[in-house]
Amino acid sequence: MGTRSRWSAGAGAVTAGTVALTAVLAGCGGNGGGSSNPSGSGRKTATSAAQAVTPSPTKSYALSKAPQTIPSVRAFTPARGPGWRPAGGRVVIGDARLADEGRLIAGELKLKYAGKVKAGAGDVELALGGSGGPESYTMTVRGGRVRIVGPGDAGVFYGTRTLKQEVHGGALAPEGVVRDAPAKPQRGFMIDIARKHFTAGWIEDRIREIGDLKFNQLGLHFSDDQAFRIQSDSHPEIVSPEHLTKAQVREIVSLAAQRHIAVVPEIDSPGHLGAVIAAHPSLQLRNASGVPTRGAVDISNPQSAKIVDDLLREYAPLFPGAFWHLGGDEYQALTVKNPEASFPQLAAAARKKYGASATVEDLATGWLNDRAATMKPFNRSLKAWNDGFFRGGSVQADKSLEVAYWTGKEIGARPPEEYLSAGRRLTNYNDEYLYYVLGQPNAFFYPTGRRIYESWTPLVVRGTTPVPAKYDSQILGGTFAVWCDLANSQTPAQVAAGIRMPLRATIQKLWDPDKPPLTWTQFVALAGRLGS
């Protein structure tokens, strides 16, 4: 994208004889479906203490309190017992597929990794099983040991993240049962590495950070007008001096996969291709007077499609994850009053390809569909920015394209309800809350974690007003994005510090969009205690 013109702790403290808050987390989202419904209705359900798991009758221990974590766990059944802390136990697994998760948590808690053996006193056991979505898990602390079980390895991994936070700084994992699952299947963080170079080490630090917070996507916007930031073998001439090598990208992708994070690459087109144009000036779009259009390729020129398709095919194997972002926003030919008059070559190409009534918007939609066709053999779920979808016209955007909704300020931008009522699925990039734009140009302001925490939910797609709740299942999640429009306004260290609390607020609301159990002041204090 270009220069932008623009969740009491857990179930609460419970004492003997009071009502306990419990829930059965029956499902959660995967990597691309609709929102999860952890208790059938998406809400915690209250039952009497007699209906809940009966605490141990021993009087030696007080009834436990829900753990405090970021994001907060969605349901906790308290119990009486000593709890658990890492002190000489082991990490054991019930399935070889959990070896990576086992080794990671063992190293973090300074425990011995024992592999696939029977669990004993003091151990942490990881296992596959149970019902629910692939990102759900149940963690039981009982009898001096911990058991984390989930239907998929991602859920088990998230259980280890909860455990890691519970025992941080020598604290105790409380006796009882956590049942947890995310409300939304897509929980993303995006970095504009095109306008500002970030080292592989900086990116890897962010992967570790967001992995511990249960994010599951990392977007990399690596091509724009200012630079092209990843090594290319098919077109080395377009690559900027400061860039990531393919070996570094493979390490980034591998680390992300270990943390159950899909890397979502973006080569934006047909706008934001200035770095490509710098090496191939003949591809630049010019108006009827011969004036060049910044960052835009001439989509009537077959060579423009060829170079972009070369790059898509080259990078698809480098990024083997489930998602790909095609861009599609801010094509400058569509920002003028009369695109057909200003760019007659585009108007002629539209009529030739799509019929006499076709427009430049149709040609741009056809471009987006053609890029989707290029990616079809790679079996990716494809995203495109909302202002790359147009109302009416002779050509409609591919129905499989997911709308990445970022703004209502662009020319021709439509309300999110228009996409949702047509049955499209959408991810929330609301620039009112989720855009961290370096230098704060064009009326942007650095977003505060407090505002996200107290005011935003995934239903707030545009501005500050939520869309109707009936569309919740079509909103797949959200992404907090860093854009580097004025790249030198902050150092990478300042960016990391600036996004720390907004990231935590965002994941809280993506994991559970209900009113958070802590006040903002309590939430900030918790983040400080966790060292996260």
Task: Quickly list its features.
532 residues, 14 helices, alpha/beta, 27% helix, disordered N terminus, Chitobiase, domain 2, 2 domains, 20 strands, TIM Barrel, seven-stranded mixed β-sheet, single chain, eight-stranded parallel barrel
CATH superfamily of the largest domain: Glycosidases
Number of strands: 20
- What is the CATH T-level topology of the largest domain? TIM Barrel
Shape: elongated
Residues in helix, % = 25-40%
Largest sheet: 8 strands, parallel, barrel
Mean pLDDT: 91
CATH level-two architecture of the largest domain? Alpha-Beta Barrel
Strand order in the largest sheet: 10-11-12-15-16-17-18-20
Tally of domains: 2
Q: Which value, in Å, is the CA radius of gyration?
A: 25 Å
Q: Count of DSSP helices?
A: 14
Oligomer: single chain
Main CATH class of the largest domain:
Alpha Beta
Q: Helix- and strand-based class? A: alpha/beta
- Strand fraction equals 15-25%
Q: Low-confidence parts lasting 5 or more residues at pLDDT below 50?
A: 1-53
User: Alpha-carbon distance between the termini?
Assistant: 29 Å
Topology:
Blueprint (H helix, E strand, L loop, with lengths): L19 E3 L22 E3 L27 E4 L11 E4 L5 H11 L2 E4 L8 E5 L8 E6 L2 E6 L2 H14 L9 E5 L5 E7 L7 H13 L4 E7 L22 H13 L3 E8 L4 H6 L4 E3 L5 E6 L4 H14 L7 E5 L11 H4 L1 H11 L5 H16 L5 E5 L16 E4 L10 H6 L4 E3 L6 E3 L11 H7 L19 E9 L8 H7 L1 H12 L8 H11 L2
